[in-house]
Amino acid sequence: MTNTFSANSPLPLVLTGFMGAGKTSVGQVVANKLAREFVDMDVVIEEEEGMPIPKIFETHGEAYFRAREAVWCERLATRDNLVIATGGGALVNPSNRIRFKDAFIVCLDAAPDEIYNRLKEQPNRPLLASTNPQQRIIELMAARRDAYAQVEWHLDTTGKTIEQVAEEIVRLLVPRRISVSVPDSVCPIFVGAGLLGRVGQLINLTTDDFSPRCAIITNAHVSRLHVSPVIESLRRRNFEPSVIEIPDSEKFKTLETARTIYDQLLDAELYRQSIIFAMGGGVIGDLAGFVAATFLRGVSLVQMPTTLLAMVDASIGGKVAVDHPRGKNLVGAFKQPHAVIADTSALATLPEEELHSGMAEVVKHGIIGDIELFEMLERDPRSSPVPTEGRQNWITRAMQVKIDIVARDPLEQGERSKLNLGHTFGHAFELLSNYELQHGEAVSIGLVCAAWLAVRQNLCVAEVATRIENLLRAIDLPTRVPREMSTDAILSAMATDKKRVGGRLRFVLPRALGQVDIVDNVSPEDVSAIIDERREE
Questions:
Q1: Is the pLDDT of residue 267 over 80?
Q2: Which end of the chain is more exposed for a tag (fewer CB within 10 A), N or C?
Q3: Could you say which DSSP state residue 521 is in?
Q4: At 315, phi and psi to the nearest 5?
Q5: Quick one: which of 263, 266, 250 has its CA closest to 426?
Q6: Backbone phi, then psi, for 239, in 5-degree steps?
Q7: What is the per-residue pLDDT across 109-119, written as a single tens digit (0 to 9) for each?
Q8: Which of these, 51, 54, 20, lies nearest to 123 by C-alpha position?
Q9: Helical axes 462-474 vs 371-379, angle rounded to 10°
């Protein structure tokens, strides 16, 4: 069952697991970090009974002790702002798990040998009173395995310090929250693992009064992988979600697809106070965002990106659009989302080519405003973006470049245009490929073209362009203009680019790593020369 706990929720955090797994010691540290009261269930039972646990077992038997545990589970489940360490057998009882149905339960695990080494000097463990305590541990763990498996969240404490385990629990409960401030609104951006199962709770952190009826716009593949925990989380917060699936391709990011979505939203009886959740990659975010901006003259939008590209770029900033046969994103609007919920666990489900595609936008952000990010990627270009402790920081760092720029220029009146680095070329390549090229692949080629165009314009030295091209190639992204695309066709596709100013194409060009300029006086002859120079052999 999906939990709805957060650090801002008063509902209890419960630590369970086998004896010696670290529930008490970890729980005390977690409670201190979250400024909560800590309760050790064994301790309160001992205080109430006036005797230690071994004496309770000796005097009254195990059944009596389990009955007292049940009483305390019922008492504690209704108290706010607690971190509770249960006895190892407390939540083996399914009735006790039901009592904590609204709590966030984490089961601490450890290897049998680790448990034995932690407990061998402790004589007050009645369940280990045996001539072979190691074998007894194995038998008890096997007996409780199925019950512990009913707990959604597990953390292995083997070989970890108390502080390390406590930090892992806090990271589960407190997703990194960063915000984009724009006129009249602040868009919170939640980044962390497991967030799709906590969507309802995260939305309820706001004070807005939403209609229960809402819609999740996604595609069949993403729906199959991720929609169930989202639905369950929303229902537990009294939302009534409808799921709308659309085809998975840039080819379907059209007004016609938008019309079919409008029909389904009307059938689902959504209101002005409803929320549209966009769950997927950049295509879903753009299309669902455009629908949210225009349906009933605007309903609330929550972006739930599931690809690397969407997390670090497309979901942030409020630009939404559909494509036109004559160009990409020619029909659109600014629609700031109510929130962005980026579940980094979803990255583990992406095929390799999707991860590579997203890396183009990460590299782009390094070129625009974070030379340390660029150099980090140079040192380890083949590293996986699936988050670890360090990797999540790497992802949020890439996001931060766009967040800072959007906060300063939310409506693209100036500086925000820098985020189009590589896109004037890239959108033309996408269009001419009939969107067979993924967005990140087209942007990668566009970044290389823009870098060498900057060299041709004497804005930067060749070393900068070489480093950009080498990094993209090391990530296994394309860096050459497809041979089947003629120069004239590319120039013609660029002619419909929405970034033109006074009939002239506007380019974003690197001056150095971490610094780009907006240039609108580039001659068509120079553009043509770069296309010809960078073409596949």
A1: yes
A2: C
A3: -
A4: -80, -10
A5: 250
A6: -85, 155
A7: 888 888 888 87
A8: 54
A9: 50
